[in-house]
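Standup notes
- DV: blocked on the single-chain target, sequence here:
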Amino acid sequence: MKRNCGLLAAMMLMALCSFAPAKPGWREVSNKLYSFSVPTHWVQKEDPNGKILSEWEPRIPIRGNTVLFHLSVQSIHSPAKNEKEPTDRINLVAESYERKDGGALSIDEIWEMKMSGLDKILTILSLRETAAGAGQKRFVMEEISDSISAATGTRKIRHNCFYLLFKSGETVHFASISIRTSELNPESQALINDILDSFRAKQK
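- DV (later): unblocked, structure below
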């Protein structure tokens, strides 16, 4: 009896943790695929149709083949400290891939696809895999790319990019957070870690 009571208490505690509200100053962003938390003042970007989550079916090459995908994209970012200098924002983009034909899809395939040809459009200074949770992969990349604006023209800017990949069913989720290297400090690093740690897939 005591054992059953202990098991019931543990299950109730897990349920409470699962539905715990976001911590003060943060809010939950949720859709049919996953949920995550960001600071309340972050701005969610809508697609041209005014929707937060957009879906379309592009043709994307994987391993030399052309595969048709369901692709969902969501974008959210911190407010710019200077509206004339929007590159000082922290940007989060979450993408979800699922094969149109229902075939199997792996985290490694999506990572390989995302990195393919990247060195042709920017300079990769470093790329390493970091510790991740069960069923996840995480990477950190430092790169230099062109930034174009009416105020400053074209210039080179160094960024740190943090990547998280995980699966739910046959859907692979790819979350990326980019920040100017000059803006990266212990506080912003902890914030990025908290956001990536908060991602939760919804089983279909």
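- Follow-up: Residues 2-18 form the longest helix (17 residues).
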